[in-house]
Protein: GDSL esterase/lipase At1g29670-like
Amino acid sequence: MGLLLVTIAILVASLELNMINGEPQVPCFFIFGDSLSDSGNNNNLVTLAKANFLPYGIDFPDGHTGRFTNGRTTVDIIGDHLGLNGYIKAFPIVKEEEIVGGVNYASGSAGIRAETGFQVGDRISMDEQMNNHKEIVSRISTSLGQNNSAAHLNKCLYSVNVGSNDWMFNYFLKAPQTSTPEAYAGTLITQLSDQLNTLYDLGARKVILFGLGPLGCLPLINIQGICSSYVNDVMDMYNIKLKSLADTFNTNHSDAKFIWINTLDIVSPNNLPRPWVEDNKCTLLWNISKYVLQSTQCSMY
Ligand SMILES: *[C@@H]1O[C@H](CO)[C@@H](O)[C@H](O)[C@H]1NC(C)=O
Ligand SMILES: *[C@@H]1O[C@H](CO)[C@@H](O)[C@H](O)[C@H]1NC(C)=O
Ligand SMILES: *[C@@H]1O[C@H](CO)[C@@H](O)[C@H](O)[C@H]1NC(C)=O
Structure:
């Protein structure tokens, strides 16, 4: 994931051009999705999809918070580039005075579909994340007053990075598959569209929609070290539908801006890093995430 983080960091660096020292570019940041964005929402759930132990977090200032990475997540890096004051807290631990600045609802193993990820235990699906956001919005409305709250929520940035698990932890696990990839992608897009409409109705006007990465290169399905072009082609097909969804939202809502991120292009399979050498610090995670863990404390050959 390191390369994705770095590349997106470069992308958002352009946002810094107008940045006044110490003044965040957005007053608030709300985060939805899966383990790519989770900042600790799974810590108290009964699930195997947890990351609140070492060596997760070995490069993060607050240690192992439940982030599924050695360091910052993509949304942490985006927040840093936007000049946010600290990282956005997970829903279960965010303090009342912090909610006005944003909340992170993302949950490892979760998906657009409710059943996605059930194999590893509890998770907070996108529909449940929307319900949690509804509750937060009503608390903000109580504290700021309805009109101020609406104006405030319009100015916030919203990140939606979800869908990987609907493929890897759902569709591709079913054998034989009960629908074509195209038909399944269509149902995901329809459901995500409902969720995004809910988000819009709750005041979101600046939304980042992340496309999916080259999941055919995940170590999990890539034992031989060769990416699955079948899986990556399916991701391509899905991402094109996701981009049109963003286009449709922009057409339908002239007061909103939906930005689609071409993750698959940014994280080109050809650009994936070479495996990390097993050493005493990194050996633990070597076999499950050799392409994911890019710690400054690991050495590379
Ligand atoms: C909220 O905005 C509406 C419509 O602009 C206005 O009629 C109403 O008086 C405002 N309420 C408050 C409490 O400011
Ligand atoms: C966009 O508007 C059209 C026409 O009103 C509607 O049929 C469609 O469902 C809308 N799409 C979204 C994603 O809201
Ligand atoms: C990783 O897998 C290899 C071969 O499958 C095995 O020999 C090695 O002990 C494993 N390393 C760890 C840390 O589990």
The longest helix spans residues 229-252. The beta strands are 29-33, 157-161, 206-210, 257-261.
